[in-house]
Amino acid sequence: MTALVHIRPLDPLKDAELIHPWVTHPKAAFWMMQDAKLQDVEREYMAIAANPHHDAFIGLVDGEPAFLMERYDPSRVELVGLYEARPGDVGMHFLVAPTDTPVHGFTRTVITAVMAELFADPATARVVVEPDVRNKAVHALNEAVGFVPEREIQKPEKKALLSFCTRAQFETAVGAAA
Fold first, then answer.
1. What is the pLDDT of residue 165?
2. What CA–CA distances, in Å, run from 49 to 20, 84, 116, 147?
3. What is the mean pLDDT of residues 49-70?
4. Which H/E stretch holds residue 98?
5. Mean pLDDT of the chain
């Protein structure tokens, strides 16, 4: 699938209405916001915007909003004390907007674009993820772009699969052109 992907900062007040149906959709169960009201989404993303170690973005595919991406410092947010952080570690979450007409390969295009965006920063040495252990679909996607699972960890809200992907692993998995 060839698509033009653009990633822009999320504006919590302007974008909450856009992402509210995404994060509350049944397919976003692992996002853990099923019962969130619009104001809850605004509050959550205002808190992220105020945090110097956590950023949120909207991904556009061919000009249309299509995914949510979060980047965070795992030594200060999400994974504090749960693993030995290294300089250059960057944490990541992504969520593809729900659709009634899925396009084969779309989610793989999205995660590849997200990873390319993270590795576009020369300071990023490896990307860290911690999806729910039950989220088999995202485990397969993560492995497709080079993630290697390390171990299960217990977070306050879930049992997670801690996985890592270095720049070299990403390039090998998706090709040096990425």
1. 98
2. 16, 25, 22, 27
3. 96
4. none
5. 93
